[in-house]
Amino acid sequence: MQLTVARIGRAHGLRGEVALDVRTDDPGARFAVGTVLSTDPAERGPLTITRVRTQQDRWFVQFAEAADRTAAEGLRGVTLVVEAADGEEDDAWYPHELAGLRAEHVDGRVLGEITGLEHLPAQDVLVLRETDGSRTLVPFVRAIVPVVDVPGGRVVIDPPGGLLASDQENLVISEETEGA
After folding, report:
1. Residue numbers of the chain with a pLDDT score lower than 70
2. Contact assessment for residue 130 and residue 164, using Cβ atoms and an 8 Å cutoff
């Protein structure tokens, strides 16, 4: 399986430099000079990095295969990919490993299914499709997601009150009952 590490953005300057929309947590290693990256679509690569720089948290690279601005513009929208390797970290997962896992409450109730992972500025969040079809973003932190059991096909969630859509329904029912 291939994982996206960046999407090529606009050309920058006249010598073939491009901006990258980085999708990896280790861009320094992924985008080192001399690195050869596969592409999607495959016929646009492979691409060899000849120059790297950062400016205000943005990554810019030059490829041997794109020597000028016109060639660099032709790469816009191309995705840079690498082969997925088994994770060496115990608490690191790729999005494709999490999608499809059953989500369970710490008390054992089935909450729904994990449909993806989103990278937000503050932290990553699991995308949970609850049993009623609601889409809920669950902060992917150990306090809320204490167990990720990929081989067992499940994650355990210990949600704070009000996080889940089902909590909102129970709150409305409780308020209606109290008012009666």
Report:
1. 1, 84-92, 168-180
2. yes
Q: Can you tell me the distance from the alpha carbon of 122 to that of 96, in angstroms, rounded to the nearest whole number?
A: 21
Closest CA to 47 of 24, 10, 18: 18
Which residue range(s) make up the domain with 99? 95-175
Helix (H), strand (E) at residue 177:
helix 165-179
**pLDDT tens, position by position, 63-97:** 999 989 999 999 999 999 887 664 444 556 777 78
Phi (first) and psi of residue 117, to 5 degrees:
-135, 130
What does pTM read for this prediction?
Answer: 0.53
pLDDT of residue 61: 93
DSSP structure class, residue 44: G
Q: Where does a domain end: 27, 55, 83?
A: 83
Q: What letter does residue 122 receive in the DSSP assignment?
A: S
For residues 70 and 140, membership in a common domain is answered with no
